[in-house]
Amino acid sequence: MGLLSLGTPLPWEEAKNYADYIRHHGIKQFLWIYHKLKDKQNDCLLWGDEVEYMVIAFDEENKNAKLSLRLYEILNELQKEEEAALKNPNSDKMVKTSWKPEYGAYMLEGTPGVPYGGTLKELLQVESNMKYRRQLAAKYMKPNEVPITIASFPRLGCQGQFLEPHYEPKGEASRSLFVPDEIINPHARFPTLTANIRKRRGSKVAINMPIFHDIKTPKPFIDPTIPRNRNLFPEDKEAAEGMALPDHIYMDAMVFGMGCCCLQITFQACNIEEARRLYDQLANIGPIMLALSAAAPIYRGYLSDVDCRWNVIAGSVDDRTKEERGLEPLKNNRFVINKSRYDSIDCYISTDKTFKPEYNDLDLVYDKEICKNLMDNGIDELLARHVAHLFIRDPLVIFKESLEEQNDENVSDHFENIQSTNWQTMRFKPPPPNSNIGWRVEFRSMEIQITDFENAAFAVFIVLLTRAILSYGLNFYIPISKVDENMKMAHRRDAVLSEKFWFRKNVFEKNNIMYDDYVNVDNGIIQQQNVHNNNNSLDNKSISIEDEYEQMSIDNIINGDGDKFPGLITLINHYLESINIDIESRCILGKYLEFVKKKAKGEIQTTAKWIREFVRSHPKYQQDSVVTQEINYDLMKTIEKIQKGEAETPELLGNFKV
């Protein structure tokens, strides 16, 4: 998660004085990277996935599943194996995994030891590598501990014991009513980040997710577990003064969001233009995959009326002041900012011929002085506005040592300080200085799934989609405001079945909706046919932006409508049929695509729906939205069995084997 530097972090009272210094040198560093590497060509396709795990400790006697805070004990052992493999002269063949810490002291991030390449053969290694990572992590855990891939821990912040070992919520960094600071990764960056967000904002973060109203849930729902009368910190009064909303689940600390787990994919493109194109084209896939991978319906021991984690994380790092949120007139701040620094992207950045300026229809907030500086130094306007938009944010963690004289030609610390704390659905990643790494993009919206099979299926699907995008010049552009609307719809309960999402009608290069040589679906193969235009006035004329897109179900987006829209899986299948691929490999990849197809059709439940139904059908559930300690214990135990292939769950996995 972000830039992990070593040194002495500055408290906000000191750090804020160096914000302009960091911005100034960050822009200089970006310019050096850009001009040195903008013409870098022919980088091969490399990619990798990031899987995040929670370490769950089972207390069998008390039927309690808790978060184990042994991050560094486990991580140290995992990194020893990694270091030993790197010392091997054939290290490229030996390094199978790489491990990093995450925000929570109960979290691990595992990636392949080296990136995957562009061959289909390497796609077949994804699931086995994920399984190996899980087995390796478990090797260094206690007998009662298990690495679980679940998006949000249901009992985080509840009354009683949900941590191993137990601590009371009295921490100075977060000042939370519900969670202790010991839950935060002890690396100096993380407690400082937590405290500085609170100090910059002028209050604790306030996250409110709507409660799921079951038969016996009180109306209005006023959470009786909030200690409204606590008087340990000045911020304790915030809940009683209106931060905790009726009919909502209230959370007040960064860990409620950054303590969630996800599945992310990073791609290295062959050049900067391809990276920018992938950034744009995948932007509207983000909300679709968020809804399809929905896996987070429970917070602080209550069933919520949403299925996804994204808005929880957005609220958990929202450092905007009242002025920046538009609640007070601007006096001490420079901008009114309409989003948290963790949110969907606000602008497209590609200069591809299919891009139209009208697609960037949001009133983008950006630093005009920085934008002018970038453009004066040879950066095109689209990219300059993107970077200047990121740089409206203040750096949140500044290490004292980083303020010493640096050569901006050889480092990117100050640029990454701000870049890495803009957590958006897509991230455009310049190469690190003095490395052989190319221009990259990161796809960030997906929720983690319970099994390695599911996570591999989603990862392979996205990788194959990028190959189809680049091979066929696919065009997914819609106005960026519609992407924002899609993000909102993706959070809704059962969105994958009940909601429709804005998507482009014609994803091929021509602009007309109806044109000769239109591509349609026939037995899963793209074929050409003549479609006669019934409205001659449209011939040879550009259609309006509003006519380029419509609302579609996720089933239609993924699988096609059998008529005009082919569906993403059909496009991927056509790509696979256009290249040399052996039957065995085709069958394995086909299994992953079939899983995504069934998920989109609703033949297989989302993880969120499965979790919700597990809770509601539990014999101890009181139909009051409360997820008790025992229900959570049984849920975690069942998930452990599913991960090991010891439990049959056709509603979640169909007939697929894990």
Automatic annotation (TrEMBL):
<comment type="similarity">
    <text>Belongs to the glutamate--cysteine ligase type 3 family.</text>
</comment>
<comment type="pathway">
    <text>Sulfur metabolism; glutathione biosynthesis; glutathione from L-cysteine and L-glutamate: step 1/2.</text>
</comment>
<keyword id="KW-0317">Glutathione biosynthesis</keyword>
<keyword id="KW-0067">ATP-binding</keyword>
<dbReference type="GO" id="GO:0017109">
    <property type="term" value="C:glutamate-cysteine ligase complex"/>
</dbReference>
<feature type="transmembrane region" description="Helical">
    <location>
        <begin position="456"/>
        <end position="478"/>
    </location>
</feature>
<dbReference type="Pfam" id="PF03074">
    <property type="entry name" value="GCS"/>
</dbReference>
<dbReference type="GO" id="GO:0006750">
    <property type="term" value="P:glutathione biosynthetic process"/>
</dbReference>
<keyword id="KW-0436">Ligase</keyword>
<dbReference type="GO" id="GO:0005524">
    <property type="term" value="F:ATP binding"/>
</dbReference>
<keyword id="KW-1133">Transmembrane helix</keyword>
<dbReference type="InterPro" id="IPR004308">
    <property type="entry name" value="GCS"/>
</dbReference>
<keyword id="KW-0472">Membrane</keyword>
<keyword id="KW-0812">Transmembrane</keyword>
<dbReference type="GO" id="GO:0004357">
    <property type="term" value="F:glutamate-cysteine ligase activity"/>
</dbReference>
<keyword id="KW-0547">Nucleotide-binding</keyword>
<protein>
    <recommendedName>
        <fullName>Glutamate--cysteine ligase</fullName>
        <ecNumber>6.3.2.2</ecNumber>
    </recommendedName>
</protein>
<dbReference type="InterPro" id="IPR014746">
    <property type="entry name" value="Gln_synth/guanido_kin_cat_dom"/>
</dbReference>
